[in-house]
Design goal:
The complex is a heterodimer of chains A (about 100) and B (about 270). With about 100 residues, chain A is mainly beta. Helices cover about 15% and strands about 40% of the residues of chain A. Chain A has 1 helix and 7 strands, in the order αβββββββ. The interface between A and B is large, with 63 and 56 residues.
Chain lengths: ~100, ~270
Protein backbone atom coordinates (compact mmCIF):
# COMPACT_ATOMS: atom_id res chain seq x y z
CA UNK A 1 0.00 0.00 0.00
CA UNK A 2 1.16 3.52 -0.66
CA UNK A 3 -0.01 7.08 -0.40
CA UNK A 4 -2.56 8.53 -0.37
CA UNK A 5 -4.39 5.38 0.72
CA UNK A 6 -1.82 4.51 3.35
CA UNK A 7 -2.59 7.53 5.53
CA UNK A 8 -6.29 6.98 5.14
CA UNK A 9 -6.01 3.38 6.23
CA UNK A 10 -3.82 4.16 9.22
CA UNK A 11 -6.22 6.81 10.40
CA UNK A 12 -9.03 4.36 9.84
CA UNK A 13 -7.41 1.75 12.02
CA UNK A 14 -6.79 4.34 14.71
CA UNK A 15 -10.41 5.44 14.62
CA UNK A 16 -11.58 1.84 14.73
CA UNK A 17 -9.46 1.08 17.77
CA UNK A 18 -10.74 4.21 19.47
CA UNK A 19 -14.21 2.72 19.21
CA UNK A 20 -13.03 -0.49 20.77
CA UNK A 21 -13.24 -2.43 17.54
CA UNK A 22 -10.92 -4.59 15.51
CA UNK A 23 -11.34 -6.40 12.24
CA UNK A 24 -11.83 -10.09 11.66
CA UNK A 25 -11.75 -12.32 8.60
CA UNK A 26 -10.86 -11.43 5.03
CA UNK A 27 -12.74 -10.51 1.93
CA UNK A 28 -12.75 -13.10 -0.81
CA UNK A 29 -11.36 -11.42 -3.91
CA UNK A 30 -12.58 -11.84 -7.46
CA UNK A 31 -10.37 -9.48 -9.42
CA UNK A 32 -11.03 -8.68 -13.05
CA UNK A 33 -10.32 -6.11 -15.74
CA UNK A 34 -6.76 -5.05 -14.97
CA UNK A 35 -5.57 -2.08 -17.00
CA UNK A 36 -1.98 -0.85 -16.94
CA UNK A 37 -0.82 2.54 -18.18
CA UNK A 38 2.84 3.17 -17.60
CA UNK A 39 3.47 3.21 -13.88
CA UNK A 40 -0.19 3.31 -13.01
CA UNK A 41 -2.85 0.63 -13.10
CA UNK A 42 -6.43 0.04 -12.11
CA UNK A 43 -8.33 -3.13 -11.44
CA UNK A 44 -11.82 -4.17 -10.53
CA UNK A 45 -12.63 -6.58 -7.77
CA UNK A 46 -16.02 -8.16 -7.23
CA UNK A 47 -15.30 -9.14 -3.70
CA UNK A 48 -17.27 -11.13 -1.18
CA UNK A 49 -16.97 -9.29 2.08
CA UNK A 50 -19.40 -11.44 4.00
CA UNK A 51 -16.65 -13.38 5.74
CA UNK A 52 -15.10 -10.36 7.37
CA UNK A 53 -16.09 -7.34 9.36
CA UNK A 54 -15.63 -5.51 12.62
CA UNK A 55 -15.53 -7.17 15.98
CA UNK A 56 -15.52 -5.98 19.55
CA UNK A 57 -11.94 -5.76 20.75
CA UNK A 58 -12.68 -7.11 24.23
CA UNK A 59 -15.24 -9.80 23.59
CA UNK A 60 -14.41 -10.72 20.02
CA UNK A 61 -18.07 -10.54 19.16
CA UNK A 62 -18.68 -9.93 15.50
CA UNK A 63 -20.44 -6.61 15.09
CA UNK A 64 -20.57 -6.09 11.34
CA UNK A 65 -19.98 -8.00 8.18
CA UNK A 66 -19.52 -7.11 4.55
CA UNK A 67 -21.66 -8.05 1.61
CA UNK A 68 -21.08 -10.33 -1.35
CA UNK A 69 -20.93 -8.72 -4.77
CA UNK A 70 -19.17 -5.61 -3.57
CA UNK A 71 -17.69 -3.86 -6.57
CA UNK A 72 -14.35 -2.33 -5.68
CA UNK A 73 -11.97 -0.43 -7.89
CA UNK A 74 -8.34 0.00 -6.97
CA UNK A 75 -5.57 2.17 -8.34
CA UNK A 76 -1.97 1.02 -8.21
CA UNK A 77 1.25 2.96 -8.49
CA UNK A 78 4.47 1.32 -9.57
CA UNK A 79 7.09 2.68 -7.25
CA UNK A 80 10.84 3.13 -7.56
CA UNK A 81 11.60 -0.37 -6.27
CA UNK A 82 9.43 -1.83 -9.02
CA UNK A 83 6.65 -2.84 -6.69
CA UNK A 84 3.02 -2.17 -7.48
CA UNK A 85 1.20 -0.74 -4.50
CA UNK A 86 -2.41 0.12 -3.88
CA UNK A 87 -2.81 3.89 -3.83
CA UNK A 88 -6.55 4.36 -3.91
CA UNK A 89 -9.64 2.24 -3.41
CA UNK A 90 -13.28 3.03 -3.99
CA UNK A 91 -16.51 1.12 -3.90
CA UNK A 92 -18.93 1.50 -6.76
CA UNK A 93 -22.60 1.90 -5.99
CA UNK A 94 -23.75 -0.90 -8.22
CA UNK A 95 -23.26 -4.45 -6.89
CA UNK A 96 -21.45 -6.91 -9.11
CA UNK A 97 -21.52 -10.61 -9.72
CA UNK A 98 -18.27 -12.56 -9.57
CA UNK A 99 -19.50 -14.79 -12.38
CA UNK A 100 -19.78 -12.01 -14.95
CA UNK B 1 2.97 -10.82 -12.00
CA UNK B 2 1.13 -7.60 -11.55
CA UNK B 3 -2.09 -9.42 -10.84
CA UNK B 4 -0.31 -11.31 -8.10
CA UNK B 5 0.90 -8.14 -6.51
CA UNK B 6 -2.48 -6.62 -6.83
CA UNK B 7 -4.28 -9.51 -5.27
CA UNK B 8 -1.97 -9.57 -2.33
CA UNK B 9 -1.98 -5.84 -1.81
CA UNK B 10 -5.63 -5.41 -2.34
CA UNK B 11 -6.25 -8.11 0.18
CA UNK B 12 -4.00 -6.37 2.64
CA UNK B 13 -5.46 -3.00 1.92
CA UNK B 14 -9.05 -3.91 2.18
CA UNK B 15 -8.95 -6.46 4.91
CA UNK B 16 -7.75 -3.91 7.43
CA UNK B 17 -11.05 -2.28 8.09
CA UNK B 18 -13.98 -4.30 6.93
CA UNK B 19 -17.37 -2.98 7.73
CA UNK B 20 -20.89 -3.87 6.98
CA UNK B 21 -24.36 -4.22 8.38
CA UNK B 22 -24.60 -4.39 12.09
CA UNK B 23 -25.92 -7.75 13.10
CA UNK B 24 -28.06 -6.14 15.75
CA UNK B 25 -30.08 -3.64 13.83
CA UNK B 26 -29.30 -4.34 10.20
CA UNK B 27 -28.77 -0.67 9.50
CA UNK B 28 -25.97 0.36 7.12
CA UNK B 29 -22.48 0.97 8.29
CA UNK B 30 -21.28 4.13 9.89
CA UNK B 31 -20.18 6.78 7.49
CA UNK B 32 -16.65 7.41 8.60
CA UNK B 33 -14.01 7.91 6.01
CA UNK B 34 -12.66 4.42 5.76
CA UNK B 35 -15.68 2.19 6.07
CA UNK B 36 -16.55 2.86 2.47
CA UNK B 37 -13.61 0.78 1.46
CA UNK B 38 -15.43 -2.44 1.99
CA UNK B 39 -18.75 -1.20 3.18
CA UNK B 40 -22.00 -2.96 2.56
CA UNK B 41 -24.83 -0.53 2.31
CA UNK B 42 -28.55 -0.95 2.24
CA UNK B 43 -29.61 0.56 -1.04
CA UNK B 44 -33.07 1.64 -2.10
CA UNK B 45 -34.51 -0.05 -5.11
CA UNK B 46 -33.46 1.53 -8.37
CA UNK B 47 -36.83 0.76 -9.91
CA UNK B 48 -38.54 4.06 -10.67
CA UNK B 49 -41.87 4.60 -8.98
CA UNK B 50 -43.58 5.41 -12.26
CA UNK B 51 -42.77 3.52 -15.41
CA UNK B 52 -42.74 5.63 -18.52
CA UNK B 53 -43.02 4.33 -22.04
CA UNK B 54 -40.66 6.97 -23.29
CA UNK B 55 -37.03 5.91 -23.05
CA UNK B 56 -35.50 8.05 -20.30
CA UNK B 57 -32.55 10.18 -21.24
CA UNK B 58 -29.39 8.84 -19.67
CA UNK B 59 -26.96 11.45 -18.52
CA UNK B 60 -23.46 10.72 -17.34
CA UNK B 61 -20.90 12.60 -15.36
CA UNK B 62 -17.17 12.10 -15.36
CA UNK B 63 -14.92 12.56 -12.41
CA UNK B 64 -11.21 12.22 -12.73
CA UNK B 65 -10.42 9.28 -10.53
CA UNK B 66 -6.79 8.46 -11.05
CA UNK B 67 -4.12 9.52 -13.40
CA UNK B 68 -1.03 7.89 -14.63
CA UNK B 69 2.72 8.03 -14.54
CA UNK B 70 3.35 9.18 -11.05
CA UNK B 71 2.25 12.77 -11.43
CA UNK B 72 -0.14 12.23 -8.57
CA UNK B 73 2.90 12.06 -6.34
CA UNK B 74 4.33 15.35 -5.20
CA UNK B 75 7.77 15.08 -3.66
CA UNK B 76 7.66 13.04 -0.50
CA UNK B 77 3.97 13.61 -0.10
CA UNK B 78 1.11 12.99 -2.39
CA UNK B 79 -1.81 14.90 -3.70
CA UNK B 80 -5.26 14.12 -2.45
CA UNK B 81 -6.79 12.29 -5.39
CA UNK B 82 -10.27 13.37 -4.41
CA UNK B 83 -9.68 17.06 -4.78
CA UNK B 84 -10.60 18.84 -7.94
CA UNK B 85 -7.89 18.13 -10.44
CA UNK B 86 -9.52 19.41 -13.56
CA UNK B 87 -7.11 22.29 -13.97
CA UNK B 88 -3.96 20.34 -13.33
CA UNK B 89 -1.95 19.02 -16.22
CA UNK B 90 -1.49 15.31 -16.53
CA UNK B 91 1.11 13.58 -18.60
CA UNK B 92 -0.59 10.98 -20.71
CA UNK B 93 -4.14 10.70 -19.59
CA UNK B 94 -6.31 9.72 -16.70
CA UNK B 95 -8.92 7.28 -15.56
CA UNK B 96 -12.31 8.81 -15.10
CA UNK B 97 -15.16 7.40 -13.07
CA UNK B 98 -18.18 7.50 -15.30
CA UNK B 99 -21.48 7.66 -13.40
CA UNK B 100 -24.70 7.56 -15.36
CA UNK B 101 -28.25 8.35 -14.37
CA UNK B 102 -29.28 4.77 -15.13
CA UNK B 103 -27.03 3.61 -12.30
CA UNK B 104 -24.17 2.33 -14.38
CA UNK B 105 -20.65 3.11 -13.27
CA UNK B 106 -17.34 2.32 -14.84
CA UNK B 107 -13.78 3.46 -15.13
CA UNK B 108 -12.73 4.78 -18.50
CA UNK B 109 -9.31 5.87 -19.67
CA UNK B 110 -9.09 9.11 -21.59
CA UNK B 111 -5.90 9.80 -23.43
CA UNK B 112 -4.61 13.34 -23.15
CA UNK B 113 -4.06 13.79 -26.85
CA UNK B 114 -7.67 13.04 -27.59
CA UNK B 115 -8.78 15.05 -24.62
CA UNK B 116 -6.78 18.07 -25.73
CA UNK B 117 -8.05 17.89 -29.29
CA UNK B 118 -11.63 17.65 -28.08
CA UNK B 119 -11.03 20.45 -25.59
CA UNK B 120 -9.73 22.72 -28.32
CA UNK B 121 -12.82 22.10 -30.41
CA UNK B 122 -14.98 22.84 -27.42
CA UNK B 123 -13.03 26.02 -26.78
CA UNK B 124 -13.68 27.23 -30.30
CA UNK B 125 -17.39 26.59 -29.86
CA UNK B 126 -17.37 28.34 -26.50
CA UNK B 127 -15.54 31.31 -27.99
CA UNK B 128 -18.19 31.71 -30.65
CA UNK B 129 -20.87 31.74 -27.98
CA UNK B 130 -19.37 34.58 -26.01
CA UNK B 131 -21.71 37.49 -26.58
CA UNK B 132 -19.41 40.20 -27.84
CA UNK B 133 -21.69 43.03 -28.79
CA UNK B 134 -20.96 46.19 -30.70
CA UNK B 135 -19.12 48.75 -28.61
CA UNK B 136 -21.27 51.39 -27.01
CA UNK B 137 -19.22 54.50 -27.63
CA UNK B 138 -19.64 57.75 -25.78
CA UNK B 139 -18.01 61.03 -26.67
CA UNK B 140 -17.41 64.42 -25.15
CA UNK B 141 -18.95 66.59 -26.38
CA UNK B 142 -21.75 64.01 -26.35
CA UNK B 143 -22.92 62.09 -29.40
CA UNK B 144 -25.23 64.26 -31.51
CA UNK B 145 -23.49 67.43 -30.42
CA UNK B 146 -20.87 69.15 -32.53
CA UNK B 147 -17.16 68.59 -32.20
CA UNK B 148 -15.08 71.72 -32.04
CA UNK B 149 -12.07 72.38 -34.21
CA UNK B 150 -8.91 72.52 -32.16
CA UNK B 151 -10.41 71.13 -28.98
CA UNK B 152 -10.01 67.53 -27.79
CA UNK B 153 -12.91 65.30 -28.73
CA UNK B 154 -13.09 62.46 -26.27
CA UNK B 155 -13.94 58.89 -27.17
CA UNK B 156 -14.69 56.35 -24.48
CA UNK B 157 -16.69 53.22 -23.88
CA UNK B 158 -19.70 52.96 -21.63
CA UNK B 159 -19.12 51.57 -18.17
CA UNK B 160 -18.68 47.81 -18.09
CA UNK B 161 -17.79 47.50 -21.75
CA UNK B 162 -14.11 46.92 -21.13
CA UNK B 163 -14.26 43.65 -19.25
CA UNK B 164 -13.34 40.07 -20.07
CA UNK B 165 -16.06 37.61 -20.90
CA UNK B 166 -15.81 33.87 -20.62
CA UNK B 167 -17.79 30.84 -21.65
CA UNK B 168 -17.26 27.31 -20.46
CA UNK B 169 -18.50 24.20 -22.21
CA UNK B 170 -18.16 20.55 -21.34
CA UNK B 171 -19.08 17.28 -22.85
CA UNK B 172 -18.42 14.10 -21.00
CA UNK B 173 -15.12 14.40 -19.25
CA UNK B 174 -13.82 17.09 -21.55
CA UNK B 175 -14.22 20.75 -20.77
CA UNK B 176 -12.89 24.01 -22.08
CA UNK B 177 -13.24 27.62 -21.12
CA UNK B 178 -12.70 30.39 -23.63
CA UNK B 179 -12.09 33.95 -22.54
CA UNK B 180 -12.28 37.09 -24.64
CA UNK B 181 -10.46 40.16 -23.32
CA UNK B 182 -10.66 43.64 -24.81
CA UNK B 183 -7.21 44.61 -25.96
CA UNK B 184 -7.44 47.89 -27.81
CA UNK B 185 -9.83 50.50 -29.08
CA UNK B 186 -9.10 52.04 -32.43
CA UNK B 187 -10.71 55.27 -33.57
CA UNK B 188 -10.77 56.22 -37.22
CA UNK B 189 -11.48 59.92 -36.88
CA UNK B 190 -12.86 60.36 -40.37
CA UNK B 191 -10.23 62.99 -40.96
CA UNK B 192 -7.49 60.66 -42.15
CA UNK B 193 -6.07 59.86 -38.75
CA UNK B 194 -6.41 56.87 -36.50
CA UNK B 195 -6.00 56.63 -32.75
CA UNK B 196 -5.00 53.44 -31.03
CA UNK B 197 -6.06 53.46 -27.42
CA UNK B 198 -4.98 50.66 -25.10
CA UNK B 199 -8.02 50.99 -22.99
CA UNK B 200 -11.63 52.13 -22.94
CA UNK B 201 -10.74 55.81 -22.90
CA UNK B 202 -11.57 58.16 -20.04
CA UNK B 203 -15.13 58.94 -19.10
CA UNK B 204 -15.86 62.64 -19.11
CA UNK B 205 -17.21 63.91 -15.84
CA UNK B 206 -19.60 66.82 -16.49
CA UNK B 207 -19.48 67.70 -12.81
CA UNK B 208 -15.86 68.79 -13.17
CA UNK B 209 -14.41 71.46 -15.35
CA UNK B 210 -12.84 70.44 -18.63
CA UNK B 211 -9.53 71.90 -17.54
CA UNK B 212 -9.30 69.49 -14.65
CA UNK B 213 -9.73 66.42 -16.82
CA UNK B 214 -7.71 64.71 -19.48
CA UNK B 215 -8.48 61.88 -21.83
CA UNK B 216 -6.46 58.85 -22.77
CA UNK B 217 -8.28 58.67 -26.09
CA UNK B 218 -9.05 61.96 -27.74
CA UNK B 219 -8.51 63.76 -31.02
CA UNK B 220 -8.42 67.39 -32.06
CA UNK B 221 -10.21 67.93 -35.34
CA UNK B 222 -8.36 70.16 -37.77
CA UNK B 223 -11.08 71.16 -40.18
CA UNK B 224 -14.77 71.75 -39.94
CA UNK B 225 -16.93 69.19 -41.67
CA UNK B 226 -20.61 68.54 -41.95
CA UNK B 227 -20.31 64.84 -41.09
CA UNK B 228 -17.06 63.05 -40.34
CA UNK B 229 -17.67 59.32 -40.40
CA UNK B 230 -16.06 58.09 -37.20
CA UNK B 231 -15.45 54.37 -36.77
CA UNK B 232 -14.62 53.00 -33.34
CA UNK B 233 -13.38 49.42 -33.20
CA UNK B 234 -12.71 47.28 -30.19
CA UNK B 235 -10.45 44.28 -30.67
CA UNK B 236 -10.80 41.33 -28.34
CA UNK B 237 -8.08 38.75 -27.84
CA UNK B 238 -9.03 35.17 -27.12
CA UNK B 239 -7.47 32.54 -24.91
CA UNK B 240 -8.64 29.18 -23.70
CA UNK B 241 -7.75 26.45 -21.27
CA UNK B 242 -9.26 23.09 -20.73
CA UNK B 243 -8.96 19.41 -19.92
CA UNK B 244 -5.56 17.89 -19.45
CA UNK B 245 -3.85 21.24 -19.00
CA UNK B 246 -4.49 22.18 -22.60
CA UNK B 247 -4.76 25.78 -23.65
CA UNK B 248 -3.81 28.38 -26.19
CA UNK B 249 -4.90 31.47 -28.03
CA UNK B 250 -7.92 32.08 -30.20
CA UNK B 251 -8.22 34.46 -33.14
CA UNK B 252 -8.97 38.09 -32.29
CA UNK B 253 -12.47 39.45 -32.68
CA UNK B 254 -13.15 43.03 -33.73
CA UNK B 255 -16.44 44.85 -33.32
CA UNK B 256 -16.95 48.27 -34.90
CA UNK B 257 -19.51 51.03 -34.93
CA UNK B 258 -19.62 54.01 -37.26
CA UNK B 259 -21.36 57.29 -36.55
CA UNK B 260 -21.25 60.82 -37.94
CA UNK B 261 -19.66 63.74 -36.15
CA UNK B 262 -20.20 67.28 -37.30
CA UNK B 263 -17.13 69.43 -36.72
CA UNK B 264 -17.53 73.15 -36.35
CA UNK B 265 -15.36 76.11 -35.59
CA UNK B 266 -15.76 77.27 -32.03
CA UNK B 267 -16.04 80.90 -33.07
CA UNK B 268 -18.89 79.95 -35.40
CA UNK B 269 -20.82 78.71 -32.41
CA UNK B 270 -20.15 81.97 -30.63
CA UNK B 271 -21.29 83.85 -33.70
CA UNK B 272 -24.42 81.80 -33.95
CA UNK B 273 -25.10 82.09 -30.23
Amino acid sequence: MTQPLLDTMLKGIEALRARGRVTYGYPILHTFDVQIRGTSAVLHDCQDGSKGGQADYRTGKHLTHGMPGTHMIAAFAKEADGGWRVAKVDQLDTPCSPDT
Amino acid sequence: MLAGYMTHLLLAGIAVVPAGNDHGDGVGVSRNYFDYLISARDKPSRTPAVQSKAKPKVTCSYQRWWYANGLQKVGQGSADPDRTLSSEPVKDGAWYLLKCSNGSQKLVWLDNQHTKAAAEQLAQQAYKRIPITLPRVLTAPPRGRDALVGLPHWFYLAKGQWAPKAKRLSTGAVWAEATARPQRMTVDTGEGHSLICNGPGTAYDPARSAGQQSSTCSYQYQQPAQARQVTVSVTWGGTWHGSGGAGGTLPPITRSVTFPVRVVEAQALVTEG
